[in-house]
């Protein structure tokens, strides 16, 4: 079968799922494809370039999922619902790939078109909501970092030493509020509630219409 960039990315994703970031190498990908490592360098010049292509695929899938989620919202949906739809789609997309959170976390630094598209659309949503330009980048980065961090915890390895029932009871006695907070909701509900809190905070930055927008900056609202 002809060696293509898509085949290399497919193999890279499979290897990454087994090895993680630090154990990942181009040679392992070549072994999986049963080719010499040198053959891969025609398509991907380095390990970093391959990781970028892999992260870009995950981000691209997340962008498409976000497009579908936004299309499914009612016409009267507000900006916070649009932010939430994008964040939920991103989380679901990352979770489909073992180690996807680590892979995606550094993709903006490598100028991944997929990751930059996620950021651009989120910035547009915030601009249309009326978030001032000096706060948009921080707000968007906070939302995206929260999603990748949340999934990173979900995809982390279980403790090397299992927690016994006795250990759990002792932790409940020592840290009752933390134990109660950890047990009160499932991960999906916790995630959506965390987005509610983030959007509530971002909402405090939005200027009332009576204040108007800065000179030369449209307020993004009709």
UniProtKB/TrEMBL annotation:
Gene Ontology annotations of biological process type: negative regulation of DNA-templated transcription; response to antibiotic
DNA-binding region per Swiss-Prot/TrEMBL record: 25-44
Protein name: Transcriptional regulator, TetR family protein
Record-linked PANTHER family: HTH-TYPE TRANSCRIPTIONAL REGULATOR RUTR, TRANSCRIPTIONAL REGULATORY PROTEIN
Molecular function as annotated in GO: DNA-binding transcription factor activity; transcription cis-regulatory region binding
Domain HTH tetR-type: 2-62
InterPro entries assigned: Homeodomain-like_sf (IPR009057), HTH-type_TetR-like_transc_reg (IPR050109), HTH_TetR (IPR001647), Repressor_TetR_C (IPR004111), Tet_transcr_reg_TetR (IPR003012), Tet_transcr_reg_TetR-rel_C_sf (IPR036271)
Transcription as UniProt keyword: yes
SUPFAM superfamilies per record: Homeodomain-like (SSF46689), Tetracyclin repressor-like, C-terminal domain (SSF48498)
Keyword annotations from UniProtKB, A to Z: DNA-binding, Repressor, Transcription, Transcription regulation
Domain of life of the native organism: Bacteria
């Amino acid at each position: 079968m002809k060696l293509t960039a898509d085949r290399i990315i497919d193999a890279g994703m499979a290897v990454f799922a087994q090895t993680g970031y630090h154990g990942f190498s181009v040679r392992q990908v070549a072994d999986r494809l049963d080719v010499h490592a040198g053959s891969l360098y025609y398509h991907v010049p380095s390990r970093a370039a391959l990781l970028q292509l892999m992260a870009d695929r995950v981000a691209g899938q997340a962008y498409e999922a976000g497009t579908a989620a936004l299309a499914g919202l009612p016409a009267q949906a507000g900006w916070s619902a649009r932010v939430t739809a994008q964040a939920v789609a991103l989380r679901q997309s990352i979770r489909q790939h073992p180690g996807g959170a680590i892979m995606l976390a550094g993709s903006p630094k490598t100028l991944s078109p997929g990751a930059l598209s996620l950021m651009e659309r989120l910035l547009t949503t915030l601009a249309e909501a009326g978030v001032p330009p000096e706060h948009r980048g921080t707000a968007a980065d906070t939302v995206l970092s929260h999603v990748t961090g949340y999934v990173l915890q979900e995809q982390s390895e279980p403790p090397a030493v299992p927690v016994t029932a006795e250990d759990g009871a002792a932790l409940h006695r020592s840290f009752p509020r933390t134990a109660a907070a950890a047990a009160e909701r499932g991960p999906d509900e916790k995630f959506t509630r965390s987005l509610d809190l983030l959007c509530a905070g971002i909402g405090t930055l939005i200027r009332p219409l009576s204040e108007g927008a800065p000179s030369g900056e449209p307020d993004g609202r009709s």
